[in-house]
Amino acid sequence: MADSVIEASGLMKAYGPIQAVNGLDLQVRKGEVFSLLGPNGAGKTTTIEMLEGLRKPDSGEIRILGMNPWKDESRIRRRVGIIPQGFNFVQRITPQEAIRYFATLFGVPERSEELLKLVDLYDMRKTYFTNLSGGQKQKLGLCLALVNDPELLFLDEPTTGLDPQARRNMWDVIRKLKAEGKSILLTTHYLEEAEVLADRVGIVSGGKMIASGTPQEIIDQHGSGRSLFVTGSGEVAEKVRKMTGSRCSFDGRHISVEIRENTDVPMILDLVRESGVEISTLQLREETLEDVFLKMVGSVEE
Ligand SMILES: Nc1ncnc2c1ncn2[C@@H]1O[C@H](COP(=O)(O)OP(=O)(O)OP(=O)(O)O)[C@@H](O)[C@H]1O
Ligand SMILES: [Mg+2]
Hints:
Structural class: alpha/beta
CATH class of the domain at 4-79 and 150-220: Alpha Beta
Largest sheet: 6 strands, mixed
Bound molecules: adenosine-5'-triphosphate, magnesium ion
Shape: elongated
Distance between the termini: 32 Å
């Protein structure tokens, strides 16, 4: 499609006996934030590295900005930015020096002040990399990914290890970059982060894309709507399962039931009351992306 910045189909990559990526398809549209989600070892980083041109797929097709990552590597390099997972760098270099160095390599104007202020790292501009905190290192990683003012960004777990405030700061930066029209492929283990940042998400499991779409589409397609969370007992859970045919779990104090019919709610509450359990907690909530994610990746055979 003309408006795609990333198109990949049938990607395969094995490391010896391990099939890390197993027929994965992915499309990222111009100007969108797309988040890859998946459990540890699902194949996200391997996929990103193939898209970046750092790893050669065993088979499959990739187009990045309409180009082939192997044949057009240097042309692509100038138009994309990358933060690798667990970003690390030369220990005795300061953020300011690092950004200036990258600008020289790319032959682009030096914007260290603007970039360091963007991620709130300006005060640390003269501190050696080795003395930066984990979160500050991540922020420098983002600055370096932005030196060449890329139109497409690959961010592999950019917020892992950040404190809650720094994570929100990173969200703001990502939103700002999106508002500038940049396209962003991002991985995260924080489902709520994907929900707030991503236009579309893809769930990767066992090297395959098992679902993709907007968070709401995934919830609608793979979720079961709402669930009721109420004080209960193992006995009540068993009765609810029999009467509704719905999934019902018991955590020792509360039961959690998928609600398919509205009329199930009063019926379940009656069952709880009849059992003599006093209701101290009662919550009816919409399923979140996290609920659906856990159900999906839990049900796939690795
Ligand atoms: N260089 C490598 N050599 C051998 N096996 C590898 C290599 N890199 C990754 N793997 C294996 O490939 C599989 C996919 O790993 P990958 O790093 O792509 O997963 P991921 O989805 O990024 O996981 P995480 O969420 O933990 O970062 C794993 O089983 C991993 O052990
Ligand atoms: Mg990874």
